[in-house]
Amino acid sequence: MRVPARLLPLPAALAASALLTGCFASTEATGADAGERIRVAMMQPPRSGLSPLSDDAFKLSRWSTAETLVKLDADGDPEPALATGWKQSGRTWTFTLREGVTFHDGTELTAEAVVRSLTRAAGASPKPRILDGVELTVKAGDAGTVAVTTAEEDPLVPQRLSSPQLSVLAAKAYRGKTVNPVGAGTGPFELTEVNGTSSAALDRYDDYWGGTAKAPGIDVTFVPDGTARAAALRSGEADIVEAVPVSQAALLDEDLITEVPMPRTNTLYLNTEKGAFKDPALRAAAREAIDAESIVKGVYEGRADVAEGLLGPALPWAAGLREPVRRAKAGDPSGKSITIGTFTDRAELPEVAAALQQRLEKAGFQVKLEVREYANIESDALAGAFDAFVLSRATVLDSGDPAAYLYSDFASDGSFNISQLADPAVDKALRKAGATPTGEARRRAVVDAEAAVLATDAAVPMLHERVIQGDAADVVGAAHDPRERELVTLDTHVK
């Protein structure tokens, strides 16, 4: 039986109710299904029709519908998933596929299926960011194996193949230029319905290779408004709510929320290619004007950590290796006009941008803000349309290793280079970090690469976020994943 939560104050409750009316209708399990379907309120709607070749892949992963050859343990080390083992020989890694796996359409997992999915991902434009700077080819081998070969020796191939953007789907998913994951995954839940950017539904897949899910299904509603997501938990309309805004966390019963330090950094990216911040001295002036501690206290209500670098407390080894960075001296920004962009999907970011506006105007800049939904602003940000951009960025989202994030965001040919940075010293440090074998030497090379980026002031890290997730009192086994890869698992269910 569902347990009612505390109600909102009346005006907020009415506003949230208007947003959520009908969102979770007809979700109760009937007939042979034991238990109740899990109702999930998610923050960002799909941007690419739930294509795994986009960031939508992480939704498929969080719903346990699409799977990869490899997954990561709590330490970020690779462990078996659709592949049971792997070995390296020079530039080639050979993966042994798990037997007895079927896709949701009943077809079998084969080496050819894996080759199809990975080859499609490797040739995508833009390619999955985990493959930034990586050229790979995939071939079917003997006895249920797949050989993955890279242009250069790559110690991180298993970790790369854990990225949800490299999920393996059935042949039916690939039609022309589109990838449709409906009924094409291998996980314990089958994606059965997608209603644009409003909702999605999944049913338990009883032939799942890993056992039987405890819940009969999942009903997902996309609720970009953070107040409305929190209201859904309070009113009992949702069982699991992701990304509860800090402004709402204090209004929820503490027993219903979980707060986990996560590898996510709130950063101000500065456009180094054109405009005011092409000048290193003005980038330095912006850096010196920012008061990150006041943002943590004021906007995040203390539920975040002031940044010492791009890599935060979720990667504790970074602090021990970090050394002071020599940066440019600040210039005079008087009268320089800048536009800062950010998005509404993460409720705190517009507030962060407003706080930055005040500080930068006090320093002498003339500041304009441009705030939209993420789906409507990402392309402009990547094209360098703004002088600065406030972004909440996961630093190990794809591989469990920050080298991929650093390359994606700061290499000359990085696919997410909002700062438009093209710095030979940074490129050299990033290449070294990516090529260094895993272990202490790689961690040191990663911190050196971080220092090279910070020395340019192309990015000003402000704070490291904590994930705040809401789970109703009758929810059992929801995942609390700092990497935001898992949410509803095989064991998640409603009492």
TrEMBL record:
Keywords: Signal. Transmembrane segments: none annotated. Residues 78-415 form the Solute-binding protein family domain. Pfam families: SBP_bac_5. SUPFAM superfamilies: Periplasmic binding protein-like II. One of its GO terms (cellular component) is ATP-binding cassette (ABC) transporter complex. Residues 1-31 form the signal peptide. The keyword Signal applies. One of its GO terms (molecular function) is peptide transmembrane transporter activity. One of its GO terms (biological process) is peptide transport. PROSITE patterns: PROKAR_LIPOPROTEIN. This is ABC transporter substrate-binding protein.
